[in-house]
# Entry
Amino acid sequence: MKTIAALITCFNRKEKTILCLTNLFKQPLLNNFELDVFLTDDGCTDGTAEAVGKTFPQVHIIKGDGNLFWNRGMYIAWQAAIKEKDYDFYLWLNDDTYLKPTAIKQLLLSSNECLNKSVIIGSTSAIGNDKEITYGGRTKAKGLLTPNGHLQPCELINGNIVLIPRYVYQQVGTNDPYFLHAIGDNDYGYRVIEAGLKNMVAPEILGECDLHEQPDTWRDSSKPLRVRWKALRKPTGIQPEQFFVYEYRHYGLFIATFHYITTNLHAICPWIWKLKKNEEKYFKS
# Structure
C-alpha cells in the first residue's frame, strides 16, 4: 500500500477549509493508495479545528499559536507527517484551494510519468472560470504557465497544489522554516532545480482558487511613512530581510543587495517611482 500525506495550514477560514477537505476526501485514488491529512490550526478563533474534528475525525490536527503563517504552518504539518511514517508522497494543499474531481489521480499519473523523481505542480483557475489561471508553475521567460495537455517544466512554484515524491523529499528536504509566510514555495522550487531535479506543471487544471490581490500600501505615497514601513514588514508583506536571503541563495549577492536597497527606498520615497512612471508616459506619448 502506497501512502500520501496531505499537508494543509489554516487560519480562520472555517468554511473554506471544510470545503477544501470535502473535495480532498472525495478524490478517487489509484489502487493501493492510502491518504492521511495533517492540518496545522494556526490559532484559529472561528471554530475551524472543532468543525474539522467533528466532520473529519481522521484528520491529524496540529495546534499553532497564531504566528506561523503559511510557510511555517506547512513546515509544522510536514514535520508531523514525517514523525507518523515514511510516506511515498507529500501533497501541499492550500485551505482555500478546491481540487477538481480527479486531481490527485492526475498528479500521481504525472508523477509516475516522471518516474516519481520530480515535483508535480497543479495549476488553479479562478472559481467558476477556467480561462483565468491564478496559481501554478512559472518560468522567468513566460511567467505563469497555462496547462496545455502536456507536462511543462517550470522554475517557480506556487504552493496551492504540489505533489512531492519521497525521492525528492530525500534529496531536498522540507520547506525552509526561515521564511514566515510567502517565499517558501518559490525557495523550494529553486532548491529542487539546484539538486538536479525538476518541477513539472501537470497537463490539466487541477483546482480552483481565486487570486489573492495584495494592496501596495507599502509603496502608496498617499500613506504616511510609518504606515508604509509597517506594511512592508508585516508577516504577509514583502519582508525585505527574508527576501534578501531568498535572492542571495538563488540570484547572488549583487541582485539581493540591489533589491533590498531599492525595496526599502521605494517604501521611504515612493514618489520617485511615480515621477519615473510619469516621465516614461511623457516620452512614449
